[in-house]
Amino acid sequence: MHLEAELGSASVSREEVLDLVRGQLAEILEIEPEKIKETSSFTEDLEADSLALIELVEALEEELGEKVTGFHIADEDIEDLVTVRDAVDYVVEKLEAS
Amino acid sequence: MKTVPRSGADSASLSSLANLPVALDAMGGDLGPLEMVAGAGDATRAHGIPVLLVGRSGDLGDTAGADVLACTEVIGMQEDPVRAVRQKKDSSVVRAAEAVRDRRACAFVSAGSTGAALAAATLRLGRIPGAVRPAVVAPLPVPGRVPHVLVDAGANVECPAGLLVQLARMGSVFSAVRYSVSSPRVALLSNGEESSKGTPEIREAHRQLLETPGINFIGNIEGREILDGDYDVVVTDGFTGNVVLKLLEGTLRFFMRSLLNAFGSSPEVQEAARVLLPALTPLADEMDPEATGGAMLLGVDGVCVISHGSSTRKAIMNAIRVAHEMVDLDLVARIKESIEPGHR
């Protein structure tokens, strides 16, 4: 896996994606970002329900959509995102493919 | 029928918010769009509140000059609400929430899927900073007194202790703003008055509420005190709250039907009923759930009233009236003040 996705003139590193996911999630769940680990499970560790996950997905689409036209997370893929790491890997792959 | 464009933010300032129409999800409700449109017309005629009807134009019938925000999709009661809101971006409830977000309406009302209204409000209006989860607050009519406030009446099936404390705070603000109750007395619903009673979440919430400044916590109450207890706000998780709400409504309906049957049991009783009914009718009106119109969604950045699926035009008219009153009272700003970080 590439460590940095090239987006035209812009690029987003895996670390930046992780920060973005962590920051949005902290805001949605009203918790400290430090409590969110890569290994954290959305439902079991962070007690995020389906609405919170969709809030996260839409926030990521809005944020990354400014850099990559049409950035979209497919609904059928959302249920496969169990941990924060799953989400970060997924976003990085989508960015690399764009 | 006057249709309005779907997008394009209005430049209405906050001060002029109350002059905007109330958006009505005209496709929600078991009785169909025509009943919704009739309720909207009643709200405009009786209370002077303009209504923006949101629905499929061909289904709305005679809209009597009301503005229409046309959409093409509807979210059904059986659909997964979160997924449906994400997928059906041109549905009536999503468009109604967007109308509030875009300052084309001051509030929205839906008698459709509660989950869809909750998801649409959360995703399109956004949560108030500091609000862990939105919650449904329902007024419980009490004869001769201001209504008791039940929170959460259905949004959060499970509530950890911290969320119950937040519900107490939001319910307290609602009671103070909506019913002018000074320092509302907040109670926690449990299976006993003692602090040792209840689930682990209830016991922990009890402990936290005792230590939380700004909330007039009076302790636990039991189910039998919900209607005539000496309190103003009762806090519980959304599963229990929804069961309580439906139980009360069903019990009242059953009791009224049984009473009417008893009144017809013999000529002598019928004669007595003729004397009693004028005294009982105002009481029945006061206890009528349709008079309250619906439940408010608290914790989102806008006014949203959720009505029963079975709402008649009377309930919809009252829901629109209540939504408009919430805007006039600036309820959302008051909730913000109470829970935003830095204000707690």
CATH architecture of chain A: Orthogonal Bundle
Could you estimate the helical fraction of the residues of chain A in percent? 40-55%
Strand content of chain B: 15-25%
How many β strands of chain B by DSSP? 12
- Structural class of chain A comes to mainly alpha
Write up what this structure looks like.
The complex is a heterodimer of chains A (98) and B (344). Chain A has a single domain, classed as ACP-like (Non-ribosomal Peptide Synthetase Peptidyl Carrier Protein, Chain A), CATH 1.10.1200.10. Chain A is 51% helix and 8% strand. Chain A contains 4 helices and 2 strands, in the order E-E-H-H-H-H. Chain A has helices spanning 14-29, 50-65, 75-78, 84-97, and strands spanning 4-7, 10-13. A two-stranded antiparallel sheet of chain A has the order 1-2. The longest helix of chain A has 16 residues, at 14-29. Chain A starts with a strand and ends with a helix. Chain B is of the alpha/beta class and 344 residues long. Chain B has 2 domains: 1-131 and 299-344, Rossmann fold, CATH 3.40.50; 137-290, Isopropylmalate Dehydrogenase. Helices cover 44% and strands 15% of the residues of chain B. Chain B has a 12-stranded mixed sheet with strand order 1-4-3-2-5-12-11-6-7-10-8-9, sandwiched between helices. The radius of gyration of chain B is 21 Å and the shape is globular. The N and C termini of chain B lie far apart (47 Å).
Looking at this protein, list some descriptive labels.
heterodimer; A: 98 residues; mainly alpha; Non-ribosomal Peptide Synthetase Peptidyl Carrier Protein, Chain A; two-stranded antiparallel sheet; 4 helices; B: 344 residues; alpha/beta; Rossmann fold; Isopropylmalate Dehydrogenase; 44% helix; globular
